Amino acid sequence: MQARSGDLISDGPSSRLSELGIVLPPPPAPLGAYVESSDTGNLLFLSGTLPVVNGKLAIAGRLGANLSVKEGQEAACIASLNALAAAKQHLGGLDRLKKLVKLTVLIATTEQFADHAAVADGASDLFVQIFGRKTGHVRLVYGVQSLPIGAPVIVDTVFEIEVPPYSISKPQH
Q1: Exposed, middle or buried by CB within 10 Å (0-12, 13-18, 19+), for 3?
Q2: Segment 64-96, tens digit of pLDDT
Q3: What digits encode the pLDDT tens for the residues 118-143?
Q4: Do residues 44 and 159 lie in contact, with contact meaning Cβ atoms separated by under 8 Å?
């Protein structure tokens, strides 16, 4: 991923994270009977990630009740870093990630809460810093009654990945 004017100033996601001074956490572990990541073709699908730090929920609660938009943005950013950690584990590194294709953010909210987009920007802004504004991503954001382990957000991601070239070996005669 080479930089163009107005885009990234680095060669790939790992370089960009380093430039930003961001160190990824250890990859998350599944909370149930599923895997954290699965790829097919040139897409990498990740299970929803939570705002967990050192195996514990970093921020808990509901937006509109006991959490502010700023706290929701922080939770979305932490969950996004966990998504990147899961991608790194699956791929053996981050530089096969070409772009974020789709971002879905579920937010535990009160019925009256209406700033869903602002909370989701905590995730979107991080991905824009890493992949550049020109790559863009589509996004779905919605509020829910509750989320696993009392989390305020879940970040669900689909990335486009660089597919290694196939090597066809010739039969030995």
Answers
A1: middle
A2: 999 999 999 999 999 999 999 999 999 999 999
A3: 999 999 999 999 999 888 899 999 99
A4: yes
CA dihedral angle for residue 106, residue 107, residue 112, residue 114, rounded to 10 degrees: -70
Separation of CA 156 from chain center: 7
SS3 content of the chain, % helix, strand, coil (to 5): 30, 25, 45
| Parallel/antiparallel/unpaired status of strands 138-144 and 97-108 | parallel
Instruction: Write the CA distances from 72 to 13, 17, 32, 47, 89, integer angstroms.
Output: 24, 22, 24, 19, 26
Nearest Cα residue to 28 out of 87, 75, 68:
87
The token pair at 14 is 């790992």
Cβ contact 139:104 at 8 Å? yes
